[in-house]
Amino acid sequence: MISNGKCPYCGQVCIVEPCETQAEADKLAAESCGCPLAMHERQIATQVAAAIERMMEICGAEAAEYGFPEISDGEVLSLLGDLISMVGHGRINKAKVQLSGCGAVEISLTAKGRIKVNRTVAKTCGIEE
Ligand SMILES: [Zn+2]
């Protein structure tokens, strides 16, 4: 059992709940460390989790309540979640996924640093006589 966790951001070692692996102990250390980078990372993690929850609302089982078809492909939902995390961490600025038959989902970072998830399903009706 490992109970010495090292914060991956500042290197400070602290006592954590006994863990099976060093990686788990380091993760716990990062979750409790008070250094600016660890705090920033926790803030991003909270933001990413909230954005994924919102994305699931407009794409998952409740999508119909928003007038959108449900995306039932779990792998696609998981990919969207990964993209939200990457946008949240600033690794990519914007991602647009064109879904087959269910419109598109665009994930971007606003000027205020918030994660924006936009779903569009285009509807057109053309009449020619
Ligand atoms: Zn730290």
Structural summary, described in words:
This protein is elongated. It has 2 domains: 33 residues, no CATH class; 75 residues. It has 3 helices and 5 strands, in the order E-E-H-H-H-E-E-E. The model has no long low-confidence stretch (mean pLDDT 94). A hairpin with a 5-residue loop joins strand 4 and strand 5. The longest helix has 24 residues. The chain is α+β, with helices and mostly antiparallel strands. The protein has a 3-stranded antiparallel sheet, with helices on one face. Zinc ion binds next to loops.
Total number of domains: 2
Which small-molecule species are bound to the chains here? zinc ion
Low-confidence blocks of residues: none
Total beta-strand segments: 5
Structural class: alpha+beta
Q: How does the major sheet shape up?
A: 3 strands, antiparallel
| Spatial strand sequence of the major β-sheet | 3-4-5
Write a concise keyword list for the protein shown above.
129 residues, alpha+beta, three-stranded antiparallel beta sheet, two-stranded antiparallel sheet, 39% helix, binds zinc ion
Give a short overview.
This protein is of the alpha+beta class and 129 residues long. It contains 3 helices and 5 strands; from the N terminus they run ββαααβββ. α2 (36-59) runs antiparallel to α3 (74-88).
Task: Give the topology.
Elements: E1 2-6, E2 13-19, H1 22-32, H2 36-59, H3 74-88, E3 94-98, E4 104-109, E5 115-120
Helix pairs in contact: 2-3
Bound molecules: zinc ion.
